[in-house]
Every structure is written in structure tokens, then in C-alpha cells.
Design a protein that fits this description.
Layout lengths: L13 E3 L10 E7 L14 E16 L2 E6 L3 E4 L5 E5 L5 E9 L7 H4 L4
Antiparallel strand pairs: 1-2, 2-7, 3-4, 3-5, 3-6, 3-7
Length: 117
Amino acid sequence: MTNYAKMNIGNEGRVELHDTLSLTGAEVSINKIPAGECAPFVHSHKTNEEVYGVLEGEGKAVLDGEDVALRKGDWLRVSPATKRQIFASANSGIVYVCIQTKEGFLEAFTSNDAIVG
């Protein structure tokens, strides 16, 4: 029995990893938006918070009508009810990872869940 799953991402515009990697505690997606374009919809969530990490390029997130500039290296947490949409800048595409997990349910993490050795 294999205790891990591995995949490779090509040039797809959006890749959700939950099925391919058999994720059970989070949804992770890799997103690529060309210069001057945006995610195709405004959305919010019932219970899931999202963390966005910008891997390449620049753009903005519009959060409840407020523009938040994004550039490579930025990380952003968004509460479930916040209406959101991601835009690439006019001159640069943007590539980001989005991690979605149920708000308030992280009970253990590396420093108190790791078993060393």
C-alpha cells in the first residue's frame, strides 16, 4: 500500500488536487490567469476559509469591494463569507495556489502534531 500520492502540473489554467491526490482535509488548486484577465466568478463560501499564495506575477484580489494588491511572495487569508475575485494585472499574468479548509478546525500542526524519528 502506498502512503503518498504524486502528480505533475502542466500548463492548465486551473488544477484542483483533491481527487488526484486523494485529499481529505483540504482543497488545493493551482491557478494561472493571463495578463488582463480575471477568475470567471465572484464567490464566497459557507464554511471554508481560503489561503492564496502568489507564486508568479502580480494582480489584485477584490475582497468585499476592496482592492488588495498581490505580487509574487504574497500570502492572503480570506474568511468564508468574504466575496472575492482574483485579477491579473494588465501587464502580467498571475499564478497562485489556493488552499481551502474549514474555518476553525485546525487542531494540530507541525509543532504539536509531528512525530520525530
